[in-house]
Write a sequence for this structure.
């Protein structure tokens, strides 16, 4: 063996020894850090939070039409919660206190009170027997930005039907805001008073079947 060949082999042996003693430790250390990062990423990926609806800071209005005009008013949210995963809406529910229903368009007090009394009666919501309505979100599909397609179950007078509607939901730290317009067919909840689909010759006394619920909710992280 020549001196040059011996020198090359000796240099290679030294390099291999250095790799074996130090690089393995580095590889082990790097692997450990990688595992920690992956675990942290996994926790971030499935970050779930619960938000409780602020009853006083939320507003729910209603609007209904008839052949000769329309009426609108407000009704209170009694409680509600939302579940959020990675700042995206996943589910939730809220109750509507039907005994708080009011009318906003009739300025004559007697007429106003008569309308509200009718809405609370058995003819409409029968609030003595069914004081609350309830909406439960079945699914919320994000369509872009803060926009969602929401599907849920709406219960009125003990009758539950499927509903679907677009909604805007934004999560900013510990605060959630949500807004939506939900169109409801009242006849599906056994509210058929003056519906042209169930009564004939109503003329200008017709009350249209659909009414709108305009939802504006705020909720705080728990």
């Amino acid at each position: 063996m020549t001196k040059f060949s011996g020198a090359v082999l000796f240099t290679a042996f030294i390099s291999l020894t250095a790799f074996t003693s130090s690089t393995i430790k580095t590889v082990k250390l790097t692997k450990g850090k990688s595992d920690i990062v992956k675990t942290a990423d996994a926790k971030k990926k499935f970050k779930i939070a619960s938000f409780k609806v602020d009853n006083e800071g939320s507003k729910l209005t209603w609007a209904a039409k008839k052949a000769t005009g329309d009426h609108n008013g407000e009704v209170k949210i009694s409680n509600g919660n939302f579940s959020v995963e990675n700042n995206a809406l996943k589910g939730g529910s809220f109750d509507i206190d039907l005994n708080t229903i009011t009318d906003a368009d009739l300025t004559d007090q007697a007429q106003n009170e008569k309308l509200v009394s009718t809405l609370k009666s058995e003819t409409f919501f029968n609030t003595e027997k069914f004081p609350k309505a309830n909406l439960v979100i079945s699914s919320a599909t994000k369509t872009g930005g803060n926009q969602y397609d929401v599907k849920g179950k709406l219960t009125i007078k003990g009758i539950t039907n499927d509903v679907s509607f677009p909604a805007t939901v934004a999560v900013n730290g510990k605060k959630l805001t949500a807004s939506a317009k939900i169109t409801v067919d009242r006849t599906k909840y056994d509210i058929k008073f003056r519906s042209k689909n169930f009564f004939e010759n109503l003329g200008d006394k017709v009350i249209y079947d659909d009414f709108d619920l305009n939802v504006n909710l705020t909720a705080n992280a728990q």
About this structure: Residues 2-31 have pLDDT under 50 and may be disordered.
